[in-house]
Amino acid sequence: MEKTPILRVSNISKSFGGIKAIDGVSFDVKQKQIKALIGPNGAGKTTLFNIISGLYRPDSGEVWFLDKQLTKLKPFELALLGITRTFQNIRLVDSLTIAENIAVGLHTKGEFNPLKVAFGIVSKSEKAIFERVERSMRFLKIEDYAYKMPSEVPFGVKRLVELARAMVAEPKLILLDEPAAGLNETETDKLLNAIFRIWERGVSILLIEHDIEFVANCSHSVVVMDSGRKIAEGLPSEITNDDRVIKAYLGG
Ligand SMILES: Nc1ncnc2c1ncn2[C@@H]1O[C@H](COP(=O)(O)OP(=O)(O)OP(=O)(O)O)[C@@H](O)[C@H]1O
């Protein structure tokens, strides 16, 4: 029997004033799957991510993470369940070192929740927290930057720092919002490598990406959105040959 999907997006709709940003979108992310969400500007991808990660409430529809409904939860509650995300615009705190920025990923997980003691985050010594941060940095091969400030590290490394911050909380599902945007070829290769290693750890991945080659290289399945609707879903090879997708996304 097929396993329960890790994420189930079911008939989600969301309007802003008169604009229907999402119109009845449904799809699943299977366990240990890398799924990409693509579509032209304004298709509704970020809005959907914001709904999945608890920043927006949908007007209708449901989001399920295994057997839990997410649509009424707040972002920190999602982190506790095992879902973390990165943002399109890198969000590092300029006055903190790279290691401290990564430790923020643990704070969010432990600080605001009544279950924090059960999770053991606050009861751990700072040393134990730092060990987790160090492990996460080593995993992403950025340990040499631990004591640097964000202004002192290259753009591609900042992206990996964001990934490390999302990974330090040991998520089951990670949401990546345009992880390859603005990266050069070498940085993109490093990112791809990092994504595969995250996946090898058993983490499921949902990512928004504009770079179709990147999507074809790393995803098992692709959902295509246009004007708030899902217009196609399938293997990368199927998607890139789909007439509706070529028309909407690749510009004919
Ligand atoms: N907070 C908001 N208030 C009003 N309108 C919004 C808001 N967020 C998104 N929209 C609108 O919803 C629609 C979908 O936007 P969204 O940012 O989700 O698309 P996208 O696919 O992520 O685009 P991009 O690839 O440019 O990031 C757009 O018409 C956008 O202007």
UniProtKB/TrEMBL annotation:
<dbReference type="GO" id="GO:0005524">
    <property type="term" value="F:ATP binding"/>
</dbReference>
<dbReference type="GO" id="GO:0016887">
    <property type="term" value="F:ATP hydrolysis activity"/>
</dbReference>
<dbReference type="InterPro" id="IPR032823">
    <property type="entry name" value="BCA_ABC_TP_C"/>
</dbReference>
<keyword id="KW-0547">Nucleotide-binding</keyword>
<feature type="domain" description="ABC transporter">
    <location>
        <begin position="7"/>
        <end position="252"/>
    </location>
</feature>
<dbReference type="InterPro" id="IPR027417">
    <property type="entry name" value="P-loop_NTPase"/>
</dbReference>
<protein>
    <submittedName>
        <fullName>Monosaccharide-transporting ATPase</fullName>
        <ecNumber>3.6.3.17</ecNumber>
    </submittedName>
</protein>
<dbReference type="GO" id="GO:1903805">
    <property type="term" value="P:L-valine import across plasma membrane"/>
</dbReference>
<dbReference type="Pfam" id="PF12399">
    <property type="entry name" value="BCA_ABC_TP_C"/>
</dbReference>
<dbReference type="InterPro" id="IPR051120">
    <property type="entry name" value="ABC_AA/LPS_Transport"/>
</dbReference>
<dbReference type="GO" id="GO:1903806">
    <property type="term" value="P:L-isoleucine import across plasma membrane"/>
</dbReference>
<dbReference type="GO" id="GO:0005886">
    <property type="term" value="C:plasma membrane"/>
</dbReference>
<keyword id="KW-0378">Hydrolase</keyword>
<dbReference type="GO" id="GO:0042941">
    <property type="term" value="P:D-alanine transmembrane transport"/>
</dbReference>
<dbReference type="GO" id="GO:0015808">
    <property type="term" value="P:L-alanine transport"/>
</dbReference>
<dbReference type="GO" id="GO:0015192">
    <property type="term" value="F:L-phenylalanine transmembrane transporter activity"/>
</dbReference>
<dbReference type="GO" id="GO:0015188">
    <property type="term" value="F:L-isoleucine transmembrane transporter activity"/>
</dbReference>
<keyword id="KW-0813">Transport</keyword>
<dbReference type="InterPro" id="IPR003439">
    <property type="entry name" value="ABC_transporter-like_ATP-bd"/>
</dbReference>
<dbReference type="GO" id="GO:0005304">
    <property type="term" value="F:L-valine transmembrane transporter activity"/>
</dbReference>
<keyword id="KW-0067">ATP-binding</keyword>
<dbReference type="InterPro" id="IPR003593">
    <property type="entry name" value="AAA+_ATPase"/>
</dbReference>
<dbReference type="Pfam" id="PF00005">
    <property type="entry name" value="ABC_tran"/>
</dbReference>
